């Protein structure tokens, strides 16, 4: 009977996988990959990609975390082509393609229902915003942003951000204003 290490992320039992002839462990619960030794060593695991059900390519850091920036870069370089049949579709005027728009951070307080946000200067890229509070009457001009992972950050109201109205199970792949190029994850 072989013993596999617990997942460093969620502590679930991992399963042994072979990657390029090397033994790794993958958590079936959260998808995290590990060498099973020191969790800090997992930062040196080689990145990898997987194809989603819709045919989009998702690129992961070696430890199993989705690499939003690399996925977006890959999607922008390898957009839909004739072979996948997407070029022949007519746009649906009732459901326009989600677009990336530049907004002020304080305007995010009016985005109801959650949106994808990329605050300029934030190296983490796209994150799903669930709440934004801006009340200039209370004497504090900052905006409190709450993200889907539970983190809360305070930002100044005037810096710019990019915003996409899309579902939380998708990730924008665009890095500038225009079509969002969403991928499911």
Can you give me a brief rundown of this structure?
It contains one helix and 14 strands, in the order E-E-E-E-E-H-E-E-E-E-E-E-E-E-E. The protein has 185 residues and is mainly β.
Q: Would you mind describing this structure in some detail?
A:
The protein is mainly beta. Helix content is 5%, strand content 31%. It is built from 1 helix and 14 strands, in the order βββββαβββββββββ. The protein has one helix at residues 68-77; strands at residues 15-19, 22-26, 33-34, 48-51, 57-60, 99-104, 115-119, 127-133, 143-147, 152-155, 160-164, 170-171, 178-179, 183-184. The chain has a 7-stranded antiparallel beta sheet with strand order 10-9-8-7-11-6-13, with no helix packed on it. The protein starts with 14 loop residues before the first strand and ends with a strand.
Give the total of beta strands. Answer: 14
What is the terminal separation in angstroms?
34 Å
Largest sheet: 7 strands, antiparallel
Proportion of residues in β-strands:
25-35%
The amount of helix comes to under 10%
Rg, Å, rounded: 19 Å
Whole-number mean pLDDT: 77
Ranges with pLDDT <50 over ≥5 residues? 80-92
Structural class: mainly beta
Instruction: Compute the number of helices.
Output: 1
Shape: globular
Question: Element order, helices and strands?
Answer: EEEEEHEEEEEEEEE
The order of strands across the largest sheet is 10-9-8-7-11-6-13
């Amino acid at each position: 009977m072989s013993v596999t290490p617990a997942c460093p992320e969620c502590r679930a039992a991992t399963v042994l996988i072979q990657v390029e002839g090397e033994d790794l462990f993958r958590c079936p619960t959260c998808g995290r990959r590990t060498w099973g030794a020191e969790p800090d060593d997992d930062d040196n695991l080689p990145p990898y990609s997987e194809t989603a059900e819709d045919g989009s390519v998702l690129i992961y850091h070696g430890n199993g975390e989705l690499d939003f920036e690399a996925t977006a870069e890959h999607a922008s370089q390898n957009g839909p082509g004739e072979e996948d049949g997407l070029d022949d579709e007519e746009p649906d005027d009732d459901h326009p393609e989600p677009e990336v728009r530049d907004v002020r951070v304080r305007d995010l307080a009016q985005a109801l229902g959650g949106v994808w946000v990329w605050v300029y200067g934030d190296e983490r890229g796209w994150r799903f915003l669930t709440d934004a509070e801006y009340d200039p009457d209370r004497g504090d001009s900052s905006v409190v942003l709450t993200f889907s992972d539970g983190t809360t950050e305070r930002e100044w109201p005037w810096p710019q951000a990019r915003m996409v109205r899309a579902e939380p199970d998708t990730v924008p792949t665009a890095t500038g204003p225009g079509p969002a190029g969403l991928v499911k994850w």
